[in-house]
Design goal:
- The structure is a single chain.
- The chain is mainly alpha-helical and about 375 residues long.
- The protein contains 15 helices and three strands.
- The longest helix is centred in the C-terminal third of the chain and has 38 residues.
Length: about 375
């Protein structure tokens, strides 16, 4: 499988991941980079399955929820809730793998993760967290005209046992990055759940890269490559199932890893440069205060704010919050997005414009309402 050209692709992917790891170490706060890139992956993976929420939609909901009174509960739209579930599912799975007492890489872990992914959203009536007991299919209206029919239920026990064994096997013949791509195809082909298989299969890649120490944090939003090349993504998966073309899939997967890892590096550098320049602009304002500086440092994890949310973030008074917002607005860092006289929201526009690349459903600019 690994001829000279494929070895070159593998090295390119591994080296790009190493650069992405280094980029994460060089930014002032790795946490805000993880916050941004994990949300980007969650949105993109969900969009591949038809979810209509954008990154701005997700961040808007999180901002409004943070600004709500302590006892209030915000209700997300159905599409945003699917993305929130993805974030919860990923957080759960990563926590289990990091905990010495947690679940290992296994179908039980994936099933528990699947249950969290599908809770209360489309597909919630299709046995979340349970291996299917009926036949499913991909495309078409029935198995007879489907594009692909996964293994029947009575074979899943043996098939999933083999999958789990390979998941935890020590395979010296193939590098971990190649194995991660192969396991994604294998999981997608088994299609063990009635719904949500695509998102769990892509989430599995995220878990494997971290668990096998190719990345120390989930910084790779690989779903951008799959979304950008959606037709080829599905065609490559089908070619493995129909023609046994593992090599073609591996080339596609390795190219995707290298491409998106390098784009992630460029994005991290661009965001870092923007934040550094904007910090200088804020500090040069004659009205700059400690509160304004504290608010600015929080913006990468809270790029949409209101007076109410700033009061909570800074644990300060409304007048102090208002003055901090005014300072950042005067510096050109925050932009008012509602056009209202009351209940205004502000966006860290430059940051969001860079971060949201690839996550919008159209080219129209979306604003918080």
């Amino acid at each position: 499988m690994l001829d000279a050209a494929r070895v070159d692709r593998l090295r390119a992917g591994e080296q790009a991941l190493a650069r992405l790891e280094l980029a994460g170490e060089m930014v002032p706060s790795l946490e805000w980079l993880i916050y941004a890139f994990v949300r980007k992956e969650a949105v993109l993976s969900s969009q591949i399955e038809g979810t209509q929420a954008t990154l701005v939609d997700l961040l808007t909901f999180e901002a409004e929820e943070a600004a709500a009174p302590t006892m209030a509960s915000r209700t997300p739209t159905a599409d945003v809730e699917e993305v929130c579930n993805y974030l919860e599912a990923l957080t759960y799975a990563r926590g289990q793998l990091r905990d010495p007492q947690g679940l290992p890489l296994s179908m039980r872990l994936l099933s528990d993760t699947h249950q969290r992914l599908m809770r209360g959203v489309r597909g919630a009536d299709k046995r979340p967290g349970e291996i299917r007991r009926s036949q499913n299919w991909v495309g078409g209206t029935r198995p007879g005209n489907a594009l692909y029919v996964p293994p029947p239920p009575h074979l899943l026990g043996d098939v999933l046992s083999s999958f789990e064994q390979y998941l935890n096997a020590d395979d010296p013949t193939l590098p971990p990055l190649v194995r991660a791509g192969l396991l994604h195809v294998q999981f997608e082909s088994i299609h063990p759940y009635l719904d949500g298989n695509g998102r769990i299969g892509r989430l599995l890649v995220t878990l494997l890269l971290e668990h096998w120490q190719l990345l120390s944090k989930p910084l790779l939003y690989l779903s951008l490559y799959f979304k950008r090349h959606r037709d080829e993504y599905y065609r490559r998966l089908s070619a493995v199932r129909v023609d046994g073309d593992w090599e073609g899939w591996t080339d596609f997967f390795l190219d995707g890893v290298a491409t998106i890892a390098d784009e992630g590096v460029a994005s991290a550098q661009d965001l870092f440069a923007l934040v550094t320049a904007d910090r200088t602009r804020v500090l040069s304002q004659g009205t700059t205060s400690v509160a304004a500086i504290r608010l600015f440092e929080l913006l990468p994890r809270h790029p949409l704010v209101s007076a109410a949310s700033v009061v909570k973030l800074l644990e300060t008074s409304k007048p102090t919050a208002g003055r901090a917002i005014d300072t950042l607005t005067a510096a050109g860092v925050l932009v008012e997005t509602t056009g209202k006289k009351r209940d205004r929201w502000y966006s860290y526009d430059g940051y969001l414009e860079r971060l949201r690349v690839g996550t919008d459903l159209d080219v129209q600019r979306r604003t918080i309402r």
